[in-house]
Every structure is written in C-alpha cells, then in structure tokens.
Hints:
The protein contains 5 helices and 4 strands. By secondary structure, it is mainly alpha-helical. It folds into 2 domains: about 1-30, no CATH class; about 40-180, Hypothetical Protein Ta1238, Chain: A (Up-down Bundle). A hairpin with a 2-residue loop joins strand 1 and strand 2. Helix 1 (about 45-60) packs antiparallel against helix 2, helix 2 (about 65-90) packs antiparallel against helix 5 (about 155-180) and helix 3 packs parallel to helix 5 (about 155-180). Residues about 1-10 have low confidence and may be disordered.
Amino acid sequence: xxxxxxxxxxxxxxxxxxxxxxxxGDRGLTGLFTGDRVAKFSPIMEANGTIDELDxxxxxxxxxxxxxxxxxxxxxxxxxxxxxxxxxSRGKYTKVGDEEVRWLEGLIHRYExxxxxxxxxxxxSTVGSAKLDVCRAVARxxxxxxxxxxxxxxxxxxxxxxxxxxxxxxxxxxxxxxKRAGKLKEVR
Length: 188
C-alpha cells in the first residue's frame, strides 16, 4: 500500500507525514474516523466541534489553576480525543468508559469533601475558577450535542456519561479554587 501524505496512517509500522491543508473539505464535507464523509454541519461534526472547543478552552484554563488540576486537565484533554474518535466512528471505537468515569467521580468526591458546598454560588470569583466555569458551560453544550446522537442515532452513550461527569468535575474544581482563595461567594 503506497503512503498517502494527506492521510495520517501507519504504513508497515511507520507513521506517514500528515498535511494540515488537504483541500478535501472545500465543498463543505469532512471525513470521519470511518472514512465516510459528512456535512461539516452534521450532528456528528457539531458534537465533535464542541468537544474540540472544550479541549481548546481547557488548554487555556490549565495555565490558571493549581498544579494538581493542571495534570488532571491534561489527562482529560487526552481522553477528549478518544471521545471524538467514538463520535467520528459512530460508536465503533470506544475507549472511554466505566474506568474513566469512575476516575472523574473519584475526583468529584475528593473536591466535594474539600468544598462542602451547601448552597448555590456565583461563578467566576478568581481567574482560574472563571476559566473552569467557561469550560463547564462548553462541556454542558457538548453533552447536549452528544445526547442528540445517543438518542436519535444510537451511538455516543459512553461519551454522554463522561461529559456529564466532566462538567460536574469542572464545576467543583472551580469551587475548590475559590474556597482556597477565600472567595467562594454563596448565593443566599
């Protein structure tokens, strides 16, 4: 099989060089993980585009949070690529599942213990918490996009669960930052 420099594939164990500009999307279609082509505004691309947007916002946020959260965010960013592969493969590739969800839930419980949240709070009391709150809102939007795929098309259910827990984690991490800074603003 000859190497195609426009396609990022491994040929006989060697990674083939990939070009960013392929011109294959110039007519409003884009390629999926499966090789199928879909409209750039399809529900699949809307979901993956929103997950990609979340990844970018997390890339910014991680520079405004404590070191332990930086490392958590980098792990999440890597997992988001697996979520996008699940969506782009129409559920044929599923790498994020129960283990990753349990990891998120463990972190949620750890930060809940620290924060001891009792009432609603005003978001964004510090730069780091504000960045995480934006990420949380984008994660919720991604969750809504993936919910459409899961309910209407029958794939993306593991991504849906993961995004639900991720938005919870981002919320409670933001509150932990505010509590540590003495800036947790409760709504009474």
